[in-house]
Design brief:
The chain is α/β, with parallel strands linked by helices. The protein has 5 helices and 6 strands, in the order βαβαβαβααββ. Helix content is 40%, strand content 18%. The strands form 2 sheets. Strands 2-1-3-4 form a 4-stranded parallel β-sheet, sandwiched between helices. It has a two-stranded antiparallel sheet with strand order 5-6. Helix 2 packs parallel to helix 3. The longest helix has 19 residues.
Length: 183
């Protein structure tokens, strides 16, 4: 059942320099993916950002593609788009949890990501959420990425004497020990 609760949306940020976004989309449910992408495109255009698109087979591949692009390409932010609809097995839980967790870990590394991977019980829920005239979750994911890009630019080069600095990472990745990295 859809909620009638009104949600506050932040105004889109303004940028002095061009913004390049990459939408990584899993078109497993093609119609849903197209709606998500249309919403993301409209929001990106509304903020004056360019939006490139790559497709991957499924939701589990989205974080990997974002991670590769963050290392190898020149994008300011990323928009993760896809849809996972509950089926008869626990695979749904694995795909939802692992794709979300992986995107969160990438974000904690400083990568600007808007998560527009729908996790729903049925196709009807997905259609409402993907529709740019409905809940517009693709547009919301693009807006989230743009807000993170704006914050990154705002704080770039502003590390003062009280900051943690290069040798005092707040978040350590698995396999890193205090004062030493495993290679």
């Amino acid at each position: 059942m859809a909620s009638h609760t009104q949600h506050h949306q932040l105004d889109l940020p303004r940028f002095d320099a061009p913004v390049r976004l990459l939408a990584v989309i899993a078109p497993y449910y093609k119609d849903i993916a197209e709606g998500l992408l249309a919403g993301a495109r409209a929001v990106a255009e509304g903020a004056g950002a360019s939006l490139d698109v790559v497709e991957v087979p499924g939701a589990l591949e989205i974080p990997t593609a974002v991670g590769i692009a963050a290392r190898k390409a020149n994008y300011d932010g990323f928009v993760a788009l896809g849809c996972v609809i509950r089926g008869e097995t626990t695979h749904y839980d694995t795909v939802c949890n692992d794709s979300s967790r992986a995107l969160t870990l990438l974000g904690l590394q400083g990568i600007c990501i808007g998560n527009g991977i729908l996790t729903v019980e049925n196709a009807g829920q997905a259609e409402v959420r993907a529709d740019p005239q409905g809940q517009n979750k693709g547009g919301g994911a693009a807006a989230a990425a743009l807000h993170l890009v704006a914050l990154t630019r705002k704080w770039a080069g502003r590390r003062g004497p009280d900051s943690l600095g290069e040798n005092h990472d707040l978040i350590r990745l698995a396999g890193q020990l205090e004062g030493q990295d495993r290679a």
